[in-house]
Design a protein that fits this description.
The protein has a domain of about 60 residues: YefM-like fold. It is rod-shaped and about 80 Å long. By secondary structure, the chain is of the alpha+beta class.
Length: about 100
């Protein structure tokens, strides 16, 4: 992506539903050379504070480092979340007689 394309876009959409505006001052910026020299320390700081970092090269946005998405609490899963909320009434496997089928009438 070219730097002028980045300037034209109002915000960058990321995988965890966040939109980060490169012109915003809600997070820190750092030059690519500073980031290279202190990469591991900076990554740990991003993980602990939860604040994203904008990496620049010659004053232009180059990359954004985001913290990992929050972990889901244990037991909160999509699969099986409706277990125990429905009730079976009658035999669901028994075949119906022809008189019971409205579509055949």
């Amino acid at each position: 992506m070219k730097s002028d394309e980045l300037r034209e876009r109002p915000g960058l959409q990321y995988g965890h539903g966040e939109t980060i505006d490169p012109r915003s001052h809600a997070y820190e910026t750092m030059t690519v050379s500073e980031f290279k020299a202190t990469c591991l320390k900076v990554l740990e700081q991003i993980r602990s504070t939860g604040r994203p970092l904008l990496i620049t090269k010659r004053g232009m946005p180059l990359a954004t480092v985001l913290p990992p998405p929050p972990e889901k609490p244990p037991g909160v899963e999509v699969f099986g979340c409706m277990a125990g909320t429905c009730e079976e009434v009658g035999d669901i496997l028994a075949p119906l007689d022809e008189e019971d089928w409205e579509v055949l009438r």
